[in-house]
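Q: Predict the bound structure with protoporphyrin IX containing FE.
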Amino acid sequence: MPRSHAAVIDKVLLIAHVLGASVWIGGHVVLLAVVIPQARGQGDVTPVRNFERSFGRIGLAALAVQVVTGPILASRWIGGWPSIFTTPTHPAHLVLAKVALLIAIVVLATHATHRLLPKLSMATLGRFTRHAWLVTLLSVALAIAGVSIRTGWLL
Ligand code: HEM
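A: Predicted complex:
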């Protein structure tokens, strides 16, 4: 039956979206709570470099999953992308907020990859850490906005 077929696809997309969010945010928590303190403890940025080399690809794959599944899920809530500006519903506001947050994250991630990481040293580790905190907080905001689409505002 086509109806239940669509429901299964929606569910698979949502599961992929939640798994992508878990990997993306989880990786950043490990970076902040384990890898950066380890680098500080030994006075050497090698653990950060190794982590970025190994997690970098997985993290980017997880972010790609969000970029693909998010807009498809969003089109179910806003009834087609053109109406996002013409029909200011609660889901439309949150989807717009998510798009803005995603753009900010992509800008920050590009800056980290091309500017911060190649010159990373103990002297610049503080700057890199503030950057990682910002990306993590923006990502948590994306998760809260995502949950709020279905459940309404948090408070
Ligand atoms: C790092 C990026 C992202 C993270 C961490 C993230 C996280 C989440 C989380 C945790 C949920 C809650 C799922 C649930 O309630 O079961 C969610 C839902 C949602 N997200 Fe994202 N998301 C991201 C990117 C995006 C993007 C780029 C879009 C599209 C513009 C998007 C659109 C949605 C929509 C429409 C929902 C509601 C799905 C539903 O309940 O049917 N997300 N997101």
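A: The chain has one domain: 2-151.
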